[in-house]
Amino acid sequence: xxxxxxxxxxxxxxxxxxxxxxxxxxxxxxxxxxxxxxxxxxxxxxxxxxxxxxxxxxxxxxxxxxxxxxxxxxxxxxxxxxxxxxxxxxxxxxxxxxxxxxxxxxxxxxxxxxxxxxxxxxxxxxxxxxxxxxxxxxxxxxxxxxxxxxxxxxxxxxxxxxxxxxxxxxxxxxxxxxxxxxxxxxxxxxxxxxxxxxxxxxxxxxxxxxxxxxxxxxxxxxxxxxxxxxxxxxxxxxxxxxxxxxxxxxxxxxxxxxxxxxxxxxxxxxxxxxxxxxxxxxxxxxxxxxxxxxxxxxxxxxxxxxxxxxxxxxxxxxxxxxxxxxx
Length: 327
Prior knowledge:
- By secondary structure, this protein is an alpha+beta fold.
- Helix content is about 45%, strand content about 15%.
- The protein has helices at about 20-25, 95-100, 145-150, 155-160, 165-185, 185-205, 210-230, 235-250, 255-265, 270-280, 285-315, and strands at about 30, 40-45, 45-50, 55-65, 75, 85, 105, 105-110, 135-145.
- Strands 1, 2, 4, 5, 6, 8 and 9 form a seven-stranded antiparallel sheet that branches. It has a two-stranded antiparallel sheet with strand order 3-7.
- Strand 1 and strand 2 (about 40-45) form a beta hairpin.
- The longest helix is centred in the C-terminal third of the chain and has 29 residues, at about 285-315.
- The termini are far apart.
- The relative contact order is 0.08.
């Protein structure tokens, strides 16, 4: 897709001059609304489950008018598409129906009749009245926020009645939301989602044979929280979460690296070195770890230079041959 400038509905001329390009295109499309108001043509198959009602979706799209090469609306030129919630952020009925028929990674072409698009009035000046529009939509990902929100609203006692897999699924969804928000540089909001996931996992008492599943999920959230607090410039909290991750996996290179970064920001250079050397031991060729050790060495040299300069000023001989501070 990638923001193509040419309307895929503008077809070559054929032997049916009385039919418009969209009419010809519609003949090979699947009716997904039951009244041919929303027609679909899959360009690339997706995988996994269908989009669920009330989900939040991450999509790329371009909308075209018939006989026009360039889209009248597109988000393909944005570096990071915005997460949109069905029923709230998506206003076209046809687009919502179309998305509900899609799977992750799918790329599809849709025709929306006026009833499912901009209606009898259109949307002046861009969309004329009673206009059929074509949309190309790529479903990058979706998150079932409704299921997660409902589960998190339950009391701890009510949540305990559900099987462990349900808790792990909701916690994973919360973490995925946090990851999306983190990529948008919304670190405070990401932190809130990560902490919701952690609360769910802390509340859960698992059978001994399943406890490793909970610990694995906690480890991922601890790493996310450590990184997020580094971005929030709160290294002491980042260190605490990094150390919690190390309780679960004492050789985890990411946790060691985050702890090293936090200590470096707090100018605890020896502790920073200890963590980073341990991280390097686990991943000797990791570019980020090796660069952080170089940065530490540079900071430490600057720190020692300042210390020596300060000592020199304090104990340097005065004009009368006495040291500073003597009567």
